[in-house]
Amino acid sequence: AQSVTQPDIHITVSEGASLELRCNYSYGATPYLFWYVQSPGQGLQLLLKYFSGDTLVQGIKGFEAEFKRSQSSFNLRKPSVHWSDAAEYFCAVGAQRGGADGLTFGKGTHLIIQP
Amino acid sequence: DSGVTQTPKHLITATGQRVTLRCSPRSGDLSVYWYQQSLDQGLQFLIQYYNGEERAKGNILERFSAQQFPDLHSELNLSSLELGDSALYFCASSRGPGGATDTQYFGPGTRLTVL
C-alpha cells in the first residue's frame, strides 16, 4: 500500500528566509505526487503536482518541488517565504491508474513564519 | 475559492444520532470524493463517486454511506455517531473518473462535533 511521510510536524522560518518541507513516499511504481496547502478554516489548495518528465516542478505562489526517485522524496521549496505562507502543508500520493484509491496524504507540516 | 461547496459549515450533534453532509462539485466535474480529517488519523480518503456510481472505497466505516445524485451533488450520511467521528469532512471534485492526472479540488469542509 502507498504511504506518505512528512517527518516535520512543525517548522518555523523567518520571513524572507528560504523554506524546504520534506516528503517521503512509498509506492510500488512511479508515483503521482502532490503538495496541497491548507490555510486556517479553508479547504486544501493544490500547490503543484508531479506526474512524469521534468523532476523539478513549478507551482503556484512561488513554490517548487523536486522529485528524487532514488531517495523516494518530493520536497517542497520556496526561496523566500512571506507571512501569508503560514499554513498546513500536505504531501500526497495518488494511484497511478484509475484513481481507485483516492489520494493518500501525509500527516502534514505546520509552517510558522516569524517576523 | 475552488468552486466546490459544502454545507453545513459546522454541525454539532450527540452520540447515536445521524447527520447528512452535502457537497456540490465544481461545474462540469463528474467525480466527487469524500475525505475525513481528524487529529489522530490525519486526512483519510473515504469514498469516490463518478457520474452517480460508486467508483472507489477507502477507509469508510459501515455506519457511513454516500450517494451522488443525478445533478451530481453528493451526500455523506453518518449514522450511530460516536465521539471519535468528530472531524473535518472534506469533499473534493474532479473532471474525470479519477487517476492522479485528474486534479482534485477541495471544498472548505464541514466540521462535525459529536458530543
List its salient traits.
heterodimer, A: 115 residues, mainly beta, six-stranded mixed sheet, four-stranded antiparallel sheet, 12 strands, 0% helix, B: 115 residues, seven-stranded mixed sheet, globular
Note down, in words, how this protein is organized.
The complex is a heterodimer of chains A (115) and B (115). Chain A is built from no helices and twelve strands. Chain A is mostly beta strands. In chain A, strand 10 (87-94) and strand 11 form a beta hairpin. Chain A is globular and about 40 Å long. The termini of chain A are far apart. The mean pLDDT of chain A is 90. With 115 residues, chain B is mostly beta strands. Chain B contains no helices and eleven strands. Chain B has strands at 5-7, 10-13, 19-24, 31-38, 42-50, 53-57, 64-68, 74-78, 87-94, 105-106, 110-114. In chain B, strands 2, 4, 5, 6, 9, 10 and 11 form a seven-stranded mixed beta sheet that branches. A four-stranded antiparallel beta sheet of chain B has the order 1-3-8-7, with no helix packed on it. Chain B is globular and about 40 Å long. The A-B interface holds A 32, 34, 36, 41-46, 49, 51, 90, 92, 94-108 and B 2, 4, 31, 33, 35, 42-46, 48, 55-56, 58, 90, 92, 94, 97-109.
The percentage helix of chain A is under 10%
| Order of H and E elements of chain B | EEEEEEEEEEE
- Strand segment tally of chain B: 11
> Counting H and I runs of at least 4 residues, what is the number of helices of chain A?
0
Multimerization status? heterodimer
Percentage of residues in DSSP E strands of chain A: over 45%
Mean pLDDT of chain A: 90
Distance between the termini of chain B: 31 Å
Gross morphology of chain B = globular
Radius of gyration of chain A: 14 Å
Largest sheet of chain B: 7 strands, mixed
Low-confidence region ranges of chain A:
none
- State the secondary-structure class of chain B: mainly beta
User: Would you tell me the structural class of the helices and strands of chain A?
Assistant: mainly beta
Total strand segments of chain A: 12
Regions with little confidence, pLDDT below 50 for 5+ residues of chain B: none
